[in-house]
């Protein structure tokens, strides 16, 4: 596609009598007959604009034109710089703006190759663009589609290995920077090798807007590579994409293959998006928000033609300890839903913010794929979308997304919209695993409003809340009036390492994460300072230990008595909790503090906070919850807990949980996942 039979693309908005320009650079006049005869396959309103480098050649070419061209022609003598590229974009810039479609050809001889190779490459380019009237009509039909900006024949097979950056990358990068875009060597590269191609005039506007002049190009010295012209050749499709268009590379086919191609193009379900190419995510697709917040970088979605349904988990990272998402709970829910849906549905985990670590070991049943890998049915994979600013991201019509954070919900909404554009509009929703009230993480700001808006699409969202407390908050504040509730499970590595009934010590564990504001590290610091200052004798034989990630010796700026240990293994954490009498674990959000529940299981008397509808004291005997964030009140409460513990140092082991979901929730998660899967199956899997 295109082929040499006359095709009709369904619903194509064919422009009546379009203005067509052939931009032919003829350095070798003896090839005029070959080139002009091919140009005669262009129907209708066409002019031939010819460039050459000497007046003598121009006169010779004029004779050929009078004899062989059925179209009006114009010949310009232009400087011998920039090979065939500069004469078109510099010497005929004015004429390009006078036509709707253009085709660029030239008398390519490539004298550094043997003549048979060079002739074959040239003819491949000329006849691949102008080989028959039917072929030209098919190309014009494709270009009439508003999405398509350029067409080129597929690479001459012998030259395919040379489709590389070679020494041209730095110049390409500079050219694209002039157009406001950036590129790396990791980006996909494709271009009309030999620089013969069709284009919409509008698709070359970003290139023409650079206003290059002949003096920008190197003097002709027989160069075989590493010139501005070679860099521009490699940039052509990038500029087409910057203009907002896709492009197509096609092969001329005949016989049965041509008949099949006709049937494909005329089929009711045919979608030109399925053969159009986009390889370069531009600033427009990536979105301006990424300039402020990198995790908001949008996707350039491209169609995968695989029809098998697939569920996709949008997860900021798979690297434990990074970010604020409860990765384990998200994976547990995702895997349970996948299990409930069965083998008829593929699974993909999409890491949106951080690439998997170098030694990352994929979970059983999954394979790690790169942006270069082909989409495959029947394969569960982990896709690194942290590189989406460099690569297109392939989606199926049947992809279903599960978001885990507000910006991944924004991605899901955008991907649903792109699915509609690629495959046609239909009912689409995504599952939103809501673990907390994320807009409360930020001061009133752009971030808080963007986070909050992710909840304001109830018709697009199947909400799944982590704990009843979080669900109640969203219901009470009129974000949702429906949704599923699931519960987190205690880390088995921690639970199995607890030494139950161990002797307790005068040890206070402080669970902090200073890089996450809602954990209230400064409040804990000042509260401990206040408690010690109020009764230094009482606290003189107590030890305070700070645990958590992203902490250092300078984290506690007032309570210098605190021993900062930092991040520890689950086993070390459980060992310290088994010995500790008291613990402090705060979280200024409706989400329950899981560390408070872990400490309570280890016999620790825990001080935490209430928030909105949250009261952790209702969940376990060992938890005390304060209402006011007042350091004096909280410090006094901590002392009362210590005094109470002194009356019975084993009382923490006697405390009872009033919930079962945190300590044994496998059956609950499985049952809820089955309900969610049933709704997905009914609504989203056709």
UniProtKB/TrEMBL annotation:
Residues 310-468 form the WsaF N-terminal domain. GO terms for molecular function: polysaccharide binding. Residues 507-638 form the WsaF C-terminal domain. Coiled coil: none annotated. This is Uncharacterized protein.
């Amino acid at each position: 596609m295109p082929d040499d039979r006359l095709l009709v693309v369904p619903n194509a908005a064919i422009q009546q009598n379009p203005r067509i320009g052939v931009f032919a650079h003829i350095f070798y006049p003896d090839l005029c007959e070959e080139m002009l005869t091919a140009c005669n396959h262009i129907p209708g309103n066409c002019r031939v604009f010819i460039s050459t480098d000497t007046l003598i050649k121009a006169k010779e070419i004029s004779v050929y034109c009078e004899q062989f061209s059925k179209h009006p022609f114009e010949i310009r003598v232009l400087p011998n710089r920039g090979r065939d590229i500069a004469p078109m974009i510099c010497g005929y810039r004015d004429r390009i703006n006078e036509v709707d479609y253009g085709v660029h050809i030239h008398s390519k001889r490539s004298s550094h190759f043997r003549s048979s190779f060079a002739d074959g490459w040239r003819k491949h380019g000329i006849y691949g663009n102008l080989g028959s009237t039917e072929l030209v009509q098919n190309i014009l039909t494709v270009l009439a589609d508003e999405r398509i900006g350029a067409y080129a024949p597929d690479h001459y097979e012998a030259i395919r290995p040379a489709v590389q950056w070679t020494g041209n990358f730095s110049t390409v990068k500079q050219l694209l920077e002039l157009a406001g875009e950036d590129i790396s060597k990791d980006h996909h590269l494709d271009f009309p090798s030999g620089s013969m191609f069709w284009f919409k005039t509008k698709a070359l506007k970003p290139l023409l807007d650079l206003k290059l002049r002949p003096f920008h190009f190197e003097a002709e010295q027989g160069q075989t590579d590493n010139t501005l012209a070679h860099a521009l050749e490699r940039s052509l499709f990038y500029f087409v994409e910057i203009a907002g268009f896709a492009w197509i590379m096609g092969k001329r086919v005949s016989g049965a293959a041509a008949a099949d191609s006709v049937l494909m193009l005329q089929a009711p379900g045919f979608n030109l998006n399925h053969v159009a190419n986009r390889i370069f995510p531009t600033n427009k697709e990536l979105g301006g928000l990424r300039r402020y917040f990198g995790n908001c970088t949008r996707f350039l979605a491209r169609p995968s033609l695989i029809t098998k349904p697939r569920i996709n988990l949008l997860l900021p990272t798979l690297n434990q300890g990074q970010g604020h998402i409860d990765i384990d709970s998200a994976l547990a829910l995702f895997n349970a839903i996948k299990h409930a849906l069965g083998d008829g549905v593929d699974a993909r985990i999409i890491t949106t913010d951080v690439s998997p670590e170098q030694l990352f070991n994929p979970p059983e049943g999954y394979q790690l794929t790169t942006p270069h890998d082909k989409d495959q049915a029947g394969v569960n994979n982990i896709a690194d979308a942290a590189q989406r600013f460099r690569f297109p991201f392939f989606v199926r019509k049947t992809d279903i997304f599960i978001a885990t954070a507000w910006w991944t919900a924004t991605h899901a909404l955008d991907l649903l919209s792109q699915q509609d554009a690629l495959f046609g509009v239909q009912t689409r929703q995504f599952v939103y695993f809501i673990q907390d009230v994320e807009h409360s993480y930020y001061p009133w700001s752009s971030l808080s409003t963007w986070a909050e808006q992710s909840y304001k699409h109830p018709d697009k969202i199947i909400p799944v809340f982590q704990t009843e407390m979080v669900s109640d908050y969203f219901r009470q504040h009129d974000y949702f009036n429906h949704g599923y509730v699931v519960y987190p499970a205690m880390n088995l590595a921690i639970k199995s390492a607890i030494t139950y009934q161990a002797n307790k010590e005068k040890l206070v564990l402080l669970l902090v994460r200073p890089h996450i504001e809602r954990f209230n590290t400064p409040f804990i610091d000042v509260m401990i300072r206040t408690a010690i200052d109020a009764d230094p004798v009482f606290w003189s034989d107590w030890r305070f230990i700070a645990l958590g990630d992203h902490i250092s010796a300078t984290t506690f700026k007032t309570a210098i008595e605190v021993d900062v240990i930092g991040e520890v293994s689950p086993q070390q954490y459980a060992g310290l909790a088994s010995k500790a009498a008291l613990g402090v674990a705060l979280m200024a959000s409706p989400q329950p503090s899981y560390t408070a529940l872990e400490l309570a299981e280890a016999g620790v008397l825990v001080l935490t906070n209430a928030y909105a509808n949250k009261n952790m004291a209702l969940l376990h005997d060992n938890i005390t919850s304060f209402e006011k964030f007042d350091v004096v009140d909280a410090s006094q409460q901590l002392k009362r807990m210590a005094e109470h513990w002194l009356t019975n140092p084993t009382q923490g082991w006697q405390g009872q949980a009033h919930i079962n979901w945190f300590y044994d929730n496998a059956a609950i998660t499985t049952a809820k996942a089955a309900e969610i899967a049933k709704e997905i199956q009914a609504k989203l899997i056709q």
